Amino acid sequence: MKQAMMMTMILVILGWFWLYPRQEEIEYANQSAQPLEMIEVEIKGAVVFPGIYHFFEPLRLEEIISYAGGLLEDADISSFNQSELISRDKQVTISSIHVTVETPSILVNINTAGFKELITIPGMTETRAASLIIYREQYGKFNTIDDLINVKNIGIVTLEKIKPYITLG
Q: With contact defined as beta carbons under 8 Å apart, do 64 and 86 qualify?
């Protein structure tokens, strides 16, 4: 009787371990997400779709040009190196064989212009136009064109780009 009782006890214990196996503890490594560095490339000139392109890894200029729809027929391919590796923010201008100088036909008054007028300025994005209007409402009219450097999202390069198209009134 003792042996039967002992056998039953052993079978119960073995059955317990078989039916309810011990959960293994999984240890996760503390891997915080690494922030992705974005590369901003502004491509303009003799390409099909000029504009600003964002990449998360370095690319060759020829690949970036293909994202911009490729070169136009009158693109001057001797003015740049297509195999150049772009690994940081950059502005690329593809010159044209038939160079035409863009002259502003109408100057935009930055002290009175509305949002729709401001975004017609070459180099002025919607974000920059909104920042300009917010700054103008907060601090009043601009005294000099160089005061635009104080506006969020307008830096030295942007200011030089939009200067020929703006006036104070």
A: yes
DSSP assignment of 13-31, as one string? HHHHHHHSPPPPPPPPP--
Task: Check whether 98 has a pLDDT greater than 80.
Answer: no
Exposed, middle or buried by CB within 10 Å (0-12, 13-18, 19+), for 6? Answer: exposed
Write down the pTM of the prediction. Answer: 0.41
Handedness of CA 66, 82, 125, 118 (dihedral sign): negative
Provide φ and ψ at 51, rounded to 5°: 160, -165
List of domains in the chain: 39-94 (no CATH), 108-167 (1.10.150.320)
Asked if residue 26 has pLDDT above 80, the reply is: no
Where residue 63 falls among pLDDT bands split at 50, 70, 90?
very high
Torsion angles phi and psi, residue 60, rounded to 5: -80, 155
